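Handout, section B. The chain below has 498 residues.
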Amino acid sequence: MPDLPTPQNATEAAEFDESWDTVLSYADLCTAGSDAAVELATEAFAHGVRETRAGAPGRGAGRRTAALPHIPLLLGAVRDTAADWERRGQGHRLDPDLRLWLTSEQAARFTGPPTQRPLALRGLQDMQRPDAALLWLTEVESLPLPAVAARLELDPGGVAEERTEVRALFRDRCLRNHLDRPMDTQCRNYARMLDAVTRTAVADTPDDLSHHLARCPYCAEAAACLRVHGGQLPAALSGGVIGWGGLAYLERRRRAAEVRLAARRATCDLGRSAAPDTRRVRLLRGGLLAGAVLVSLVALGVSLMPFGGAKSDAAVRGEDAADRQPPATGPGTGGPGPTATGPSREPSGTPAPSVSAVPSPSPSHRAPDPEPQGTSTASAGAGGPTPSAPATPPSTCRATYDMTSEWSTGFQAVVEVTTERALDDWTVAWDFRPGQRISQMWDAHPEQRGTRVRVDAAHYNRAVPAGGSLTFGFVGLYGDANGVPKNITLNGRPCALR
């Protein structure tokens, strides 16, 4: 594994620091483990830096000289390095879906003739690098405009207007490249209509054009790139420039931006609360000094007073120990730990376990925090039913299934599960409708057999605190109908869908 290159100057050092996290994030999507992700990111980073410094064409016949901004260039290097791994016999370390994609026509477009390459990639390459960097950082990396202005040394007051201008410039480059592409008569006839209906976000698309876009992938790709005001531009850029995993990478960067923004706000609030005026500091310091003297006198008097009838330290410690319960390791934990004795995770492809039966108590073992499963219908004995028969307990987890987008054959969804108990690891499962299946997933590892889906935690988000949430997203396909899944469980326990 090659070492990371050494920065040659302060500007390059800043670029390295800003882009390493993005390269590692995409490499993690492309590989089957954390060690492989670090190795792939390191090798791709070194290759991308060498290509940037040399300014020489990359691999592949007819490829243009690299004119992409720093981050998209490095992400492309991750994709190319993954293809090299596959050719060198290291494909087993890559994501299985990526390996299939590398042999597809979509992957061949990135190294084929320039006129056949993805439209977003060609449009970004035809722009000046500062303009392309502004577009990528705001649309794909989801950085706030002040941060982008500081990174690119732009006027903070005019960066919003510049973003509008580079969006229009990108649209112009994509339209020109689309018209230059070899196309049949039908595509040529719809080209001008496509240009007209994508200029604004409120224009209606004629039915005949909609039918054509559903059948022609090239014109549909052009429509996504030309609609720069309808919210489709980030997905068009990430998918067209990166290729496989573009939507998953986009979702990860959005989350990272949200985390950075929340941390920045917390820091600002802390700074404001920790900066009182000088007079208030002096008054507070004087009050603390007087209070310390008073407390010392009281403590001296109390220490000389005899105490009788008070509880001993051992008794107090005993009461405290009785009030605190040890963490449960049985069925009530909500998640398997290293020594868990609760129910094991359900295997993929089998239906969820029934929750209508009550397990019979064992005379030799009792879980520290037993939790009844389902509703009891058995009698207590000859004397009739027990007056305090346990009712169905509330779910210890709540699930949210948010379908963020949908199109004719697929959809994108985000699943969030909130647990009342702390988890050391987790598995979420559900039943899809017939014809639904997962194509790509981020922040978790899916396995599907028939309509049954099992999702295991990634290596970096296994632990969830009590009251915390776990989240992952995916891109899926469907046949006749699309809808919300059923029987969502967390570690084998049913979750309430909200």
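Note. The radius of gyration is 30 Å. Compare this with the example in section A.
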